Structures are given as structure tokens and as C-alpha cells.
Amino acid sequence: MAPGSLRCLSARWASWPGLSRAGIGAVMLSVVVFVASVLMAAAQALPGADSPALRRTITVAGPANFPPFFMQDPEGRPTGSRVEAWLAWQEATGIEVEFLLDDWGVALSAFEAGEADVMDSIVATAKRRETMRFSEPFITIHSSLFYSAEMLGITDLDSARSLVIGVMTRDACEEFLRAAGFDALRAYPDPASLIEAAAAGEVRVFCMLEHQAWYLLGQRNLLDRFRAAPPLYVAQGRWAVRKGDDPLFLTVEAGFRAIPPDRWRELDQKWYGRSLEESGDRGRSDWLLQLAAILLGGVALALLWAYALRRKVRREMASREGAERWLAKRVREAQTTHWAFEAVKDNVRDIAGMASLLARDLPEGFWFPKHAYARVRLGDTCCDLIGTRPIVASMTIPVLVDGRPYGEVTVVYDALSPEQEKGDAFLAEEDRMMRLIAGRIGDQIARQRVQDSLALSEERFRLVTEVTRDVYFDIDLATGAFWVNDNYRSVIGEIPEEFDDLRAALLARAVPEDREIVQAGLFGGGQGR
Fold first, then answer.
1. pLDDT greater at residue 229 or residue 331
2. I want to staple 285 with a disulfide (CB 3.0 to 4.6 A). Which of 88, 206, 326, 372 is the partner?
3. How far apart are CA 386 and CA 390, in angstroms?
């Protein structure tokens, strides 16, 4: 409004009937107060400089070597499912994400010191909840004790109390074990260092997330050197901010919710190959959408560069994804084979129980266990979990005992996956696994038959020596060991403790015409017994 406008308005009001100068002043004062109130409310509604809405960058701390969440690509750049999750979050919010990746303990200390805004891939514990606010979990996995295959009997925490246990510095495993009263812990900065120490024999038992341990052991061809005890606890991966920083928490949470569902599914297939229990804030970044943004920009040079980069990354990720799927299958097959061997050994006298266990759990070692069923026939015993289901593919391996058919193990599919329809329904590794298990069944049954036959023979010999009045003895001339039955006492006398005394006693009882033959037999006739 121009300076003269107010005077003109006042003049018009003054000309209105019944409006005095005092009334005009009151009206003008009300207008000024109203405008000032509106301006103050608008100023208060604007976000401050420290508001998350005005942030231009956010720093995320995490472990540098934590596959598949945080890793490095061949050029040394950060990659992994959580790295791509935060890049997708950056795209959804417009806030740039910077990564502070280091050894686990160093990264956590940096977050606590305020050098980072968010801590990612962290497990919520009672102690940490005192200073941090945690998100919903984006993945649920188990933590277990892993031990050298040369050791036996590590079944729970109590069975490992006398051993030094390897952990990662400031990891949830370390906190869990210390709370359980374990002080003999040896800490390492990252998972790779801990695995290398276990491989070198520095520690023979270590605590780690199961999927991470199997991944690193398989990467180093160490799967056959270690075994896993039953899970210690369930670990849930989350992100966290410092307690009290609610605006930042809400900003991060809203940013993850803004990522489209298609991005979640694509990243899940890229990094995990199958669904895992996780919440909507799980990182599922997709660089193809970034490529689309570049295409909309219309820059031809950037388009060519992105196209070449896409082909390279696809090849690398396809290779890595294939390797991870292959490793997961081999681990499942190895675990199933080990379990089957133990089940056969423990139930060799209970054929029905063995057949039931094998029929129930054998499908777990196959490619798609949800559609796999088994039938185990051993002698006159059969456990059939196939029933009347439709059979679209089957594999049958015979069980031989002493070279003769004794039974068979059959696994079938009632439906095939798209991957199976493109190739063979059963893998060569699965065929080898089944043959190993069938061979173990036949060997154990044959061995048990031999043991039973030997036990029966010994029992018959014992009964013969007990009912006869003759003296029976067995002498090993090479070692001096001997055995005599109880009739020795009634016929000859007290059983000697020394071998030479026994030979002298037996020689003394020989009749003159047999003495030379008995002496040759007792003192080295060359036969050994």
C-alpha cells in the first residue's frame, strides 16, 4: 500500500456517516494488531536452521565390513543392502547421506560422540536403550557359538565356560556373554578379523551372527572346519538415533516410508534372493531409478555413461548374487548331511525312528523345501510323507547293505519353481548328498549287524565255557596277555598273575608223552597264540 493510500482510506472513513476520528483510530489499531499476529505466527511456523526439514546432509555410521549390509566394491567404494537403502532414502528426501564406516567399535564410539547422526545395523539391548531410540527391526537373524570341528560337546553356554571366546569389539555378542558371566573374551575389530583369528587357531570358539559367519567361512573355504551350536539369542537389525532427538527420528522414519514398495522388492531380490522378516524401513535402494532421472535430464553423455555402468554392475551383482545363492545351498546341504549322519548313527537300532526322522527333515536340504516331500523305506519299515500329493519330479536312491538292496530313499516335488522349470528339478549336489546319506544308512546297518553277530558269538562262547568242566585258556605269546575260564581254579589252582607262572603251571600238568608238544606251544612254536 502506498503512503498516500492510508491517508486516502482515512479520509474515506471520515466521510462515512457516524464515524468519528476516534473510531477511525480504533479500527486502524485493530488492523495493525491483526497483521502483526499473522506475521508472528508465520515466523513461528517456519523451521529453524537446526530442524531436520532444513538439513542438507545426514551422517550414517556403520561397520565397514558387515556383509551383506555394508561392504566395499572392487573399487573400494561402500556398497551393500543398507548402503543402497540410505541412497534410496536420500533420493526420497532430498537430504544427502554421508557414510562414516569403520570397525564396529570405532563406528559406535563415533556415533556416541556425536560425529554421526544415525547408527545403522545395530541390535537393541537394555543398556543401549538407555541412550538410543531404535527403529523397528529390518531383519531378524540368530547369533550362535561357532567352534572348531575338532572339538565336541559345545552344546550351550555352560559347555563353553572354560574356553576363550572370540567376539567383535562392543558387539551385542560381547554384551550378551558378559551379562551371562563370561570374562574370558577376546575382542576383534571386525567380523573378517575374527574369522581369520579362528582359522589361525587363536580362538577355537567364537560368537557371531549365523548368516554372517556362514558367508565369511564359505568365502574362505572353511565350512568343513567349524560347526555351529544351537542359537544363543535372536538378533534384530535396526537403525538408531540418540535418545531425545525425536525430530530426526521422525524425519528418518518418514523418509524410509516414502520409498516405493517396488524398490523394497527389487532390493530384496538383489541382495537376499528370498524374503526375510523385515519392516518397511529396510534399505532397498535401486540405482535404476537414478538412471531414469538421468534420462529425464536429457544429457546424452551421461546417458551413455550410465548405460555402460549399468551393464558392468549387473554383471558384478549377478556374479555375487549367484555366489551367495550357491553358498547358501551348499551350507544347507552340508548341514542336512551332517544331521542325517548323526540321526542314522543315533537310531541304527530303531529303524522305524530313523525312517521317520529322515522322511521328515531330508527335504530341508533341497533347493525348494516348501514343495519337497520324502519317503524312506528300510527293510519292512516305511515312512511315507508323500502320500497322494501330485508328483512332478522325483529322485530315488537305493539303500544297499553288504551289496544287497535293503530299501530306498525318495524325494519328490509337488510343484516346480520357475528356476527348476528352466533346467533340472534336482541339482547334481543334491544327488551326491542323497547318495552319501543312503550309503551312510547302509554302512551303519551293516556295521550294526556285524556288532550284533560278534556279541552273539561272544555270548555263546561264554555260555560254553561256563557249563563245561574243561579248562579253556587263550594266550598271546607276542604280548604275554592271557585269559582262562573259572574252571582253572578247580582243576589246576589259583590263576597266576604273571604269564611265566601260567606257562609253568600248564607245563607241569602235561603228561610226559605230551610235554614236548605243550612246551613248544607255550614257549614259542611260531604261531603267536
1. 229
2. 88
3. 9
Q: For the whole model, what pTM was predicted?
A: 0.41
Query: Comparing 15 with 151, which gets the higher pLDDT?
Result: 151
Superfamily for the 139-236 domain: Periplasmic binding protein-like II (3.40.190.10)
185: three-class secondary structure by DSSP? strand
What CATH number should be reported for the domain whose range is 326-448?
A: 3.30.450.40
Written as one letter, the residue type at 53 is A
Lowest mean pLDDT among 45-59, 247-261, 457-471: 45-59
Q: DSSP letter at 70?
A: B
The set of cell numbers assigned to 52 is 531436520
From 86-95, 182-191, 471-480, the region with the lowest mean pLDDT: 471-480
Does 330 or 396 have the greater pLDDT score? 396
Number of C-beta neighbours around residue 300 at 10 A: 8
Q: By 3-state DSSP, what share of the chain in percent is helix, strand and coil, each rounded to 5?
A: 50, 20, 30
| Owner of C-alpha cell 531425545 | 244
- Angle (CA) 36-40-43 rounded to 5° is 140
Angle at 364 between CA 361 and CA 370, to 5 degrees: 110
Grouping H, G, I as helix, E, B as strand and the rest as coil, residue 189 is coil
Task: Give the residue from 85, 77, 215, 232 showing the smallest Cα distance to 158.
Answer: 232
Taking the mean position of all CA atoms in its chain, how far away is CA 479? 53
What whole-number distance in Å separates Cα of residue 358 and Cα of residue 348? Answer: 12
How far is 288 from 160, CA to CA, in rounded Å?
48
pLDDT (0 to 100) of residue 257: 93
Distance CA 161, CA 154 (A): 10
Does residue 46 have a pLDDT over 70? no
By residue count, the chain amounts to: 529
Whether the CA torsion 520, 524, 527, 529 is positive or negative: it is: positive
C-alpha cell at 485: 575260564
Q: The C-alpha cell of 255 is what?
A: 523418509
> Which stretch of DSSP H or E encloses residue 30?
helix 21-45
State the amino acid at position 107 in one-letter form.
A
Q: What grid cell was written down for 38? A: 499473522
Distance of CA 231 to the CA centre of its chain: 9
- What's the Cα-to-Cα distance from 68 to each of 198, 228, 237, 272, 290, rounded to whole Å? 21, 20, 12, 8, 22
Cβ atoms of 243 and 130 closer than 8 Å: yes
158-193 residue pLDDT tens: 888 888 999 988 888 888 999 989 988 999 988 889
Helix (H, G, I), strand (E, B), or coil: what is residue 100? strand
Instruction: Mean pLDDT check: name the lowest of 55-59, 321-325, 402-406.
Output: 321-325
* Distance from C-alpha of 507 to C-alpha of 518, rounded to nearest angstrom: 7
Judge whether 169 and 189 are in contact, CB under 8 Å: yes
Q: For 54-137+237-284, give the CATH class.
A: alpha beta
User: Which three cell numbers, joined as nine digits, stand for 452?
Assistant: 550284533
